[in-house]
Input
Amino acid sequence: MSAVAAFSSPLGIRRVLWLDAVTGAGSAALSLGLPGLVSAMLGAPVALVQGSAWLVLVFVAFIGWLLARPVLPLRGLRLLAGCNAAWVLASVGLVLAGGLGLTVLGVAYVLAQAALVAVLAALQWLASQP
Output
């Protein structure tokens, strides 16, 4: 069994969702707990750091709702995959626009998290196919 098939299986996709939730919650906690530090390190405005953290917590709550279902709803997985894909596009657009003055660390962080979210979105999408 390939790695993609393993992670898009019913048990594997639950692990993917847990990874998505834990990394999202950790990132949001850091951004809400130390917004000034995160802002200074990334070169992003505090309002963007905090606003994106609150948005991520909405995603985390939705993932929690999905995980609480005995059978993962395919529409819910598709919605999450689509939202994650939109997050990736917005993240890359933010870097390409260049107007925020992100630091080198900020660019690296935004692109690294976008890459991780892209992989998660792809696995979620694959698992949502009947």
Q: What stands out?
A: The longest helix spans residues 10-33.
